[in-house]
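TA notes. Do not distribute before section.
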Amino acid sequence: MEINKTERLIPVTGKERIVTLDIVRGFALLGILLVNMQLYLSPYPYTLMYETNWWTGTSDILADYFITIFAESKFFTIFSFLFGYGFYIFMERARDKGKPVVKLYVRRILALLIFGALHIVLLWWGDILHLYAVIGVLLLFFINRSPKALLVWSVILIIIPVIILGGLTALAAAVGGTDTADPHFTQFLDEQVQTSLQVYSQGSFIEIIHQRLADFSFIVAYSIIMAPHVLALFLLGVYAAKKRLFQDIDANGPLLRKAWLWGLIVGISFVFLQFTGKYNLLGISYMSSQVHYMIGTFIGGTALCFFYIATLTFLLQKPNWFRILSPLGDVGRMALTNYLSQSVIATTIFYGYGLGLFGQVGPAWGIVLTFGIFTLQVYFSRYWMKRYRFGPMEWLWRTMTYLKVQPLKK
């Protein structure tokens, strides 16, 4: 933020922006679209729980493997980390100017919650904004914690889902329910897959809304399990912001090198667990394979997230790489707009009120579509940011936060 001549608090623009932060955010949006594309084009929340791979074509199976290893759970974690980083910057700049920090932040979070709710109802069930808004309120209790305390809390919160999953496995083993998926549950999954295929590809807009809400209800339990993990990433973002990670990269070189090395070592180890568990390549019980997948997802995704962040940050210190990657900065500056527009474009392609291709496109073509859509977003973001101070949704978000219409044109 900055202060104008009348001491009115206004949003950050221009020179005060952290370019590296914007580029990393833009990179995260590419990975998020790569993963979400599987959810846009198929009944993924249900097929994910099958004991066999839903995709049968070789190219689709390999594409699914690629997304699981390199993208799944690695990019929303970056986005979550950056949310915490941005939270701290927002709060500190408001505090430095003596403004009502909590009031501003609460309005900002409420606006995000509204965006998330509308996203779920009108566009797509896999929204993350509402979860960020709900969990984001808890950040107010950590803003004054020391960096060390933030690290301790982060570790505790990352371990919580692992303990929950381990406990569920032990409970299932005690009652003898780990060998195969429950047949009644499998039948339910089959019914939901067929319903999703029919409604999303041929249904009316109202019918699609009902199906979207049913899908959202189905994943709520997963969101609850995931909540401590998201909060942990928020806190790691606050920790990094207090260390001025992106503002003072030279001073934080040792920290980034540790993040790079340990992120790679831990990431590879647990992503192996994620991969083998998801497809049950070890031939273990159904419940055990699912727990392996979830634990690998939580820990492996987090570790590789920091490997990716550190790698990208080091590359951006080299002029040639900075020139290549800099267009991602405009995408990152319009992160909310681009995140929501991804849903607009993808659902128009796959849902019945658009082209109705739901269930007819596999992961291989999904990857092609991902890069095609993202390329359009890169060019649009560059065009828009040359002419305007904020993305369209960023402008609306800021206007709702400050309760005053913000100037849009440069």
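Switch to the second chain here.
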Amino acid sequence: MGHVLRDGLARLNALQAARCLVAIGALLLVLVTLDPFPDLRNPDVTTVVGGRMALTYVFWGLLAAVAVLCVAASDAPALKSLLTPLHLCLVGWLLVNIVFSESRGVSLQRFVLAASVTSLAVLLPLLPPTQRSFNLCLGIAALVLLALCYLGVVLAPQYSIHTALDIAEPQLAGDWRGTFGHKNIASPVMTILVYVGIYLSAVGSFVMGPAIAALAGIFLIFTGGKTSSVLCLAIYALASLVYVTPGLWLKRIICFVPLIAMNLLTVGSVMSPVLGGVTRLLPLDPTFTGRSAIWEFALAAVAEKPIIGHGYAAFWDDVTARQTAQGAEWATTAAHSHNSYLDLAVTIGLPGLLLVVLVFVLAPLGNFQTAQARSRSGALAKLFLTVWLFGLYYGATETFLLDRQNPIWFMFALAVAGLHFLARFQCVEQREPGR
């Protein structure tokens, strides 16, 4: 046993082990957070505690700095590939937007956190030394999160299931939320974990993969998240169709035509009487559970500052004094636009929205086409494609794009970065001897 232990330690590369630990730490930090199982019965649950937020900034900043140091030497070509004119324009526009923000300090502070989180998400595909170790990092983080969520439901249901005593939304009583603060965060995360489980099964993890997919799927059902539950299988089917479709233009039609139609029937229904009439003919709530009033309010805000916007992540903090349509005054209590694309138009303006669409909506599909044409890690490329597609469609009714430490944004940015790297580099299947 002594010889076996010494041989194992001799083969262990401390730097590569550290890179895997950073990857797992980043995934757990965004999925579990530093403040899991919030007590929604406490009136102070929505109060931002300065010390806790400072700790969040420190942890994300340190992890991002360590991640950069880990990959700077060995993955310099991959890092240089990120310095595209389009990426630089987006970052430049965000900095300009912060300068002209209505709450410059708030925008700058939140941009720093968003930059740290996004940097970690982008670097995460580069951290594990091989594809196998990347799979292991994903699997470990997913199993830890699922174990915590199920333990919370069994041992402390008052902290992991919505109750009638919740201060904000007692009507959600009975819906599972796990370690998260709301079922609308738990449900999309579980959807993404279903995709992770399917991917791990496809690459040979016949125990871990099915376990993650099954546990996440069951939890998703009990969250009561209708949007995520409907999208879960629909998006996987759509991604499978894109995967077997040969041409890029046909892929674009399959991906974007339903997405455009979805946005027209939601936000478009409050902009056009014709589209509103079409929406009312569908077997759906024409207000989309009250979102239509919020969309009208947000569209009015876009009209006020269509170019520069109101400031990155700064608009929704204090909107109670703004004018609303009669009967829709409650819309000023909303935390966001309930549509990622509309929210970006409100905060960073229409030019900012255009840049985000070019970087995060159009470019990833082209990267997938390139990776597929070069036969690079088909199963992994399909995972990234599926997570990316889910984010695009989920964003039609919820806000997450560029949303700091939002776990859906983190996984979406990870998928976009993964497609970017796969289009330009070959995955390392196994570590070379002596490295």
